[in-house]
Structures are given as structure tokens and as C-alpha cells.
Design a protein that fits this description.
Layout lengths: L3 H7 L2 H5 L11 E6 L5 E7 L18 H7 L5 H6 L6 H15 L4 H14 L4 H11 L2
Helix pairs in contact: 5-7
């Protein structure tokens, strides 16, 4: 197999034909503060949809593990994830919980709290809860 760089050199037309599409669900946002020397510092995290949508062509990046750990101190984002449409939501929720659990260095207390939160949010849908919990399997 060729590396991406080699493929780009040898067959540049492939990159004109191929397209990657993904969708995101905004589950929260952070309001940054200006610190000393005009450097932004970590701000308050809110786990709901922001007052304004992201700008068109806004960059998307993967959060650092410490950002994920900080964001997941509260579990309100699970309600937003459960309400996502046109996606495999149950698998998405399970994957999010697995990923956070990994970054929280296998914090069992957090995992139990996440399970309790899901059971409250899905109180009338035991089958769905069972499917999600089965996919977490730490």
C-alpha cells in the first residue's frame, strides 16, 4: 500500500473524486477567559447547545484527553446524545462512555454514575438501556 503522500503524488485525481463526510452533534461548549498576557485560559464548560452555531468552515479537532476528562465531570451531555437523530445513537452513546472511561483511567465510580444516569434518562426503555450497557463492556 501507498502512503497518503505517495498516493497524492502518483494519483492526484483520486483526491478530487473522494469525499469524506461526517456529521457532528454539539453536546456542549466552553467559554474561554482571557488570562495574563492575553492568553486564553480554560473557561466554564456548558453541556448544552451554544447560543450561536459554529461559523461556516469552522475547524474541527479532536479534543485532548484532559479536555474530555474535564468535560465529562458532568453527564448532562448524555441526554443530548440520546436525542441525536439519523445516527446509530445507542452505539454512539456506548462509544462515548467507553472513550471517556478510558481517559478517566478506568474510573469505575464514574462508569457506574454514567450507567445510573442512562438508567434515569431511559427509565421507560429497558431494552434500549440494556443494549447500550451491553456495548460498553469495560
Amino acid at each position: 500500500g501507498l502512503s497518503l503522500e505517495e498516493l497524492r503524488e502518483q494519483q492526484p485525481q483520486i483526491f478530487a473524486m473522494l469525499k469524506t463526510e461526517f456529521r457532528v452533534a454539539i453536546v456542549g461548549f466552553e467559554v474561554t477567559r482571557e488570562g495574563n498576557n492575553s492568553q486564553s485560559q480554560r473557561g466554564k464548560i456548558y453541556q448544552y447547545i451554544p447560543p450561536r452555531p459554529p461559523q461556516i468552515h469552522q475547524g474541527v479537532y479532536e479534543c485532548e484527553p484532559d479536555e474530555i476528562v474535564g468535560f465529562s465531570q458532568e453527564l448532562d451531555f448524555l441526554r443530548t446524545l440520546l436525542d441525536v437523530s439519523n445516527a446509530p445513537v445507542d452505539s454512539l452513546v456506548a462509544a462515548a462512555i467507553r472513550e471517556v472511561y478510558k481517559f478517566k483511567t478506568l474510573d469505575r465510580a464514574w462508569l457506574i454514575e454514567a450507567g445510573r444516569t442512562l438508567s434515569i434518562l431511559l427509565k421507560d426503555d429497558y431494552d434500549r438501556l440494556r443494549v447500550i450497557l451491553k456495548q460498553i463492556h469495560p
